[in-house]
Design brief:
The chain is of the alpha+beta class. The chain contains eleven helices and 27 strands. The protein folds into four domains: 132 residues, no CATH class; 117 residues; 67 residues, no CATH class; 133 residues, Alpha-Beta Plaits (2-Layer Sandwich). The strands form eight sheets. A five-stranded parallel β-sheet has the order 5-4-6-7-8, sandwiched between helices. The longest helix is centred in the last third of the chain and has 27 residues. Helix 4 packs across helix 7 and helix 8 packs antiparallel against helix 11. The structure holds zinc ion (3 copies). One zinc ion binds next to loops. The site of one zinc ion has 8 residues, from loops.
């Protein structure tokens, strides 16, 4: 049985398997060029039997780096979930022949034919390059957060909440397929200023089992039964008796059950002032039934006004999220000193410093240093650019004092120096420039911009 064949850059490939037979990859080509590293979502034994070629390198160790996931069957879902916490490139483009991966699949091919898979690989080459340009995502506490940021950035999309009627929570994030507790991961990122929330839906939650699979219903205020009937009320003017219409119904028309008179004319003998609800389970009547929820998972009843609520959001990438992604780590000010401020905190701290400086007429100078990444990418590649930006941030932090504030920009650094005149800041920048010149082999094209106290407000607006 052939699992798939692919024709990539003129090269014919095929993975062949059969009962007891090893998987083989046929490729007689020796053409030079970029080779793609592919992690096939097969179990370890099957993966070991893949044979690489000049153009296609089947990654056997999932923890090494690779460019694409390929999923050949629905069972690949389990392999993906198992490998995601430790594999070398969790944000890699995913090509799937099944739709089990929902929006996490970057390409779904209907049939695992040579041309379909080759077409998917070639159409996803720019995406693979975009993912490859980011620092790798290490296993550990930040992994899921960085993965969420990487998927949003490289796929240029918000992380959208979607209905998932089979899950207890009813809502999920298909892009974060395989990530455990995605809502917690996303909420932490939003609280850290890396993602912006956009409201999706407010759901009620069962207080007993935390599920949102609740059924809303009107119930009897006495016995909680939903077996209710609504009747019009009749009010008999002459004796003042009022009851449900059913109590008045008689073969001759309406007869008052209290005074036994026949009610002839609406508006003269009687009127209908409203409705009453009767419980067919306990016989009680009530003006309004109660609205409540019954949990379809555990059966617990919760009155509507006592039910807990949970808000769900879509999430959009913010500048601080992109900066963290490029730095390859989420800043944790408390446990990792010296990483600088997040851009959001930078703006808060500088806004405060600015108002103090204005009030007391003290000097304050901010500046930005940005790298022409286009030129630098040609020289050192995209990962090299990331490393150089990290180096520049470190260098700036070493050169500044304790009362100065530094933050990473997507392609550079921003700093604010308290009690510093413009000329002092220029002298400091000159020293930094010299250090860069003497340390870096490649000479990045750097642009510096200074902002005096009166101009810092404009800078802050631009950063926000
Ligand atoms: Zn429940
Ligand atoms: Zn009456
Ligand atoms: Zn009842």
């Amino acid at each position: 049985m052939t699992i798939w064949k692919a024709d990539i850059a003129g090269e014919r490939l095929g993975v062949i398997t059969g009962p007891g037979a090893p998987l083989l990859l046929r490729s007689p080509s020796n053409a030079a060029g970029k080779s793609w590293r592919i992690l096939c979502l097969l179990d370890d034994e099957q993966r070991k039997n893949l044979r690489s070629t000049a153009r296609i390198e089947f990654v056997l160790d999932p923890e090494s780096d690779f460019d694409f996931f390929i999923a050949l069957s629905p069972a690949a879902k389990d392999v993906f979930e198992e490998l995601l916490p430790r594999c070398g490139n969790p944000a890699a483009p995913l090509i799937s022949v099944t739709d089990v991966f929902a929006s996490r699949a970057d390409a779904v091919v209907e049939q695992p034919t040579a041309s379909a898979i080759a077409g998917a690989i070639s159409s996803l080459t720019p995406l693979a390059a975009r993912v490859g340009a980011l620092p790798s995502i290490p296993p550990g506490a930040d992994r899921n957060g960085l993965l969420a940021l990487a998927l949003a950035y490289t796929r240029s999309t918000a992380i959208k909440a979607r209905w998932q009627p089979c899950s207890p929570e009813l809502v999920g994030y298909p892009l974060l397929f395989g990530v455990e507790n995605p809502r917690t991961v996303l909420e932490d990122l939003a609280n850290g200023g890396f993602l912006r929330r956009r409201f999706h839906e407010r759901l009620h939650v069962c207080g007993q089992c935390d599920s949102s699979q609740l059924h809303a219903r009107e119930t009897c205020i006495n016995c909680r039964s939903s077996h209710l009937a609504e009747h019009a009320l009749i009010h008999h003017y002459s004796c003042g008796f009022q009851a449900a219409q059913t109590a008045f119904e008689h073969r001759d028309g309406y007869v008052c059950p209290k005074c036994h008179k026949l009610l002839r004319h609406y508006g003269v003998d009687y009127d209908k002032p409203g409705f009453v609800t009767e419980c067919l389970a306990c016989g009680g009547t009530m003006a309004e039934p109660e609205v409540g929820f019954i949990c379809t998972r555990c059966g617990t009843y919760t009155a509507g006004d006592h039910a807990a609520k949970r808000d769900w959001y879509h999430y959009e990438l913010l500048a601080d999220g992109l900066a963290a992604l490029r730095a390859g780590a989420l800043p944790h000010a408390d446990i990792w000193p010296g990483t600088g401020y997040s851009l959001r905190d930078f703006c808060l701290v500088v806004t405060h410093a600015l108002s103090v400086a204005e009030q007391h007429q003290r000097p304050l100078t901010a500046w930005t240093m940005t790298v022409d990444t286009d030129a630098l990418t040609q020289e050192v590649g995209r990962r090299g650019v990331v490393e150089i930006c990290q180096f520049l941030l470190e260098l700036v932090k070493q050169n500044l004092g304790d009362s100065d504030v530094v933050s990473a920009l997507p392609t550079g650094v921003v700093a604010c120096m308290s009690e510093t005149e413009r000329t002092e800041a220029e002298a400091k920048l000159q020293r930094i420039r010299e250090q860069i010149g003497s340390t870096l082999k490649s000479k990045p094209e750097l642009k510096f911009e200074l902002f005096g106290r009166e101009e810092i407000g404009t800078l802050l607006r631009d950063l926000n």
